[in-house]
From TrEMBL:
This is LRRCT domain-containing protein. The keyword Iron-sulfur does not apply. Keywords: Glycoprotein, Leucine-rich repeat, Repeat, Signal. Transmembrane segments: none annotated. Residues 426-479 form the LRRCT domain. It holds the Pfam family LRR_8. It comes from the Eukaryota. Residues 1-24 form the signal peptide.
Length: 534
């Protein structure tokens, strides 16, 4: 038993060493070969495909080489080669018959070279080719029969070239194709039937081109499409119902185009949509019926538009929305009261950097699962007392850089798990009305994360003090004032001025809060002026 075991061990060891040696022996200079048949070669010294490759080479990757042509015989005698790539190599010519000698290839990647023309039908011998990458070249046109015969092709990458207007039949016959990338070209026109053969396509990339319009019916046969990326074009109008065949679509990007309007019901019949981007379009308005039932939508990006309002039901069909990024719309003044009515799962709502002046008291009342609410950088002058009442799970509220002068002391009463609140950059008015929220802020110092920036802008005698430093006793005079006014109101008898106790001591007492001597001086001065007024 023991010797048999040892014998086996020795055999394995010898075989291993031998195969290792064999490989090393057969591996050409500038290359790395593994004993599975993968060969990787790098460097300018390589000017043609090395001919002393291990016999069982199935994968050959040449990168950053000095090889600028593929000859008629370059790929000869590599019967087991299935995957071939020649990248970053200034390749500018391929012999018209270069692939006749390697019809077994399943993958050809010629990315990041200098190809500006390719002979028609050059790939046609490759009837079993599944992957063809020609991205990062200088191709301006593609012959209509360039891909003829590639009946097995699944993945075609033509991105990062100089294509302008591909012919309408260039993809005909590629019925198995599942991935097509035309992104980062200069395409300004796509014929209406160009994609009509691609009934199995799952992903179509047309982003970063120069399209000004989409032809009606262009996507009609893409019934299996899951991802459609058309962002970064110059599209000004969409034909009605252009996406209606895309019943399986999950991702649609339309951001960074020139859309001023979107036709009614454009996003109907896409029940599987999970991501829709329409940001960075100069949208002026949205139609009353726009979004069909899309319960799986989790993220919506609707920012950097020219919208000044939106229909109240625009998000109503997105019942599964988790994050709504509705910001940087610098004309957006007001929001319909029922806008967020039907978003029972929303976790994050960003309304940052809009132009909001006012919020309806019921605006957020349905957002029971909201964790993050960003309202910073708007023009809010005040907030309804109970605006945050329904937000039992809210963790973060950002109100900085608005025009808020005061808030009710009960504003955050029902937000018991609030952890981060930003209130800085507002012109807080530290008169009697600030007393309630000042008290709340003192109690929740750890929650107000920018407490040092939450400072009084008025009255002058409070200038530059933080609200957190205002002591409740300083406001005792406010009670007297209330008494006074109710007394005045009920008896209509003049009251002796000296009975009101303005905080004459306060500016001295809190001088250390005022870094600015002039402010301190003015404050002192003004306090006395105020007394005089009474
Ligand atoms: C190929 O070479 C380029 C440029 O020299 C480099 O950026 C890239 O990472 C290389 N790719 C591989 C797969 O080695
Ligand atoms: C919501 O979707 C349904 C079905 O897709 C549609 O009939 C309804 O009009 C949509 N609602 C809105 C407000 O667009």
């Amino acid at each position: 038993m023991d010797s048999l075991f040892r014998g086996t061990l020795w055999t394995i060891l010898i075989l291993f060493t031998l195969s290792h040696l064999t490989c090393n022996m057969l591996c050409p200079g500038s290359c790395l070969c593994n004993n599975m048949g993968a060969v990787k070669c790098v460097g300018d010294a390589i000017t043609d495909i090395p001919h002393n490759l291990p016999v069982h080479t199935y994968l050959l990757q040449l990168n950053g080489t000095g090889m600028n042509t593929i000859n008629e015989r370059s790929l000869a005698d590599q019967d087991l080669l299935l995957r071939f790539s020649l990248t970053y190599s200034h390749l500018h010519a391929i012999h018209p018959n270069a692939f006749n000698v390697a019809p077994q290839l399943k993958s050809v990647k010629l990315s990041s070279n200098d190809l500006s023309t390719i002979s028609a039908r050059i790939f046609s011998p490759l009837a079993t080719l599944e992957q063809l990458h020609l991205d990062g070249n200088q191709l301006e046109t593609i012959a209509p029969d360039m891909f003829e015969g590639l009946v097995s092709l699944l993945d075609l990458d033509l991105s990062r070239n100089k294509l302008t207007s591909p012919a309408s039949d260039v993809f005909d016959g590629l019925t198995k194709l599942i991935f097509l990338n035309l992104g980062r070209n200069s395409i300004n026109k796509l014929p209406p039937t160009i994609f009509h053969s691609l009934t199995n396509l799952l992903k179509l990339m047309i982003y970063n081109n120069e399209l000004e319009e989409l032809e009606a019916g262009i996507f009609d046969k893409l019934v299996n499409l899951v991802e459609l990326k058309i962002h970064q074009n110059q599209i000004t109008i969409l034909p009605p119902q252009v996406f209606w065949s895309l019943k399986n679509l999950k991702t649609l990007t339309l951001s960074s185009n020139r859309l001023q309007a979107i036709p009614e019901k454009t996003f109907y019949n896409m029940p599987k949509l999970t991501k829709l981007t329409i940001y960075n379009n100069p949208l002026l308005s949205l139609p009353d019926q726009l979004m069909g039932h899309m319960p799986d939508m989790t993220d919506l990006y609707l920012y950097a538009t020219n919208l000044n309002t939106v229909p109240g039901n625009v998000f109503a069909n997105m019942s599964g929305l988790l994050r709504l990024n509705f910001h940087l719309n610098d004309k957006l003044r007001e929001l319909p009261s029922d806008l967020f009515c039907c978003l029972p799962k929303l976790e994050k709502l960003s309304l940052t950097s809009n132009d909001l002046l006012y919020l309806h008291p019921q605006l957020f009342s349905g957002l029971t699962t909201l964790g993050i609410l960003l309202l910073n950088d708007n023009k809010l002058k005040s907030l309804p007392d109970n605006i945050f009442q329904g937000l039992g799970g809210i963790l973060t509220v950002d109100l900085k850089n608005n025009h808020l002068e005061t808030l009710s002391g009960d504003t955050f009463l029902s937000n018991s798990v609030l952890k981060a609140l930003h209130l800085g950059g507002n012109p807080w008015d530290c008169t009697c009305s600030i007393r309630g929220i000042a008290k709340w802020i003192r109690k929740h110092e750890h929650v107000v994360l920018d407490g040092q920036d939450v400072i009084c802008h008025s009255p002058v005698y409070q200038l530059l003090r933080t609200i957190g430093s205002l002591q409740d006793e300083e406001f005792n005079f406010c009670d007297a004032k209330i008494l006074k006014s109710s007394y005045l109101f009920t008896t209509q008898t003049p009251v002796v001025a000296s009975t009101t106790t303005m905080p004459t001591i306060m500016p001295y007492h809190n001088a250390h809060h005022n870094a600015h001597q002039n402010a301190y001086h003015n404050a002192h001065h003004n306090a006395h002026d105020n007394i005089g007024d009474h």
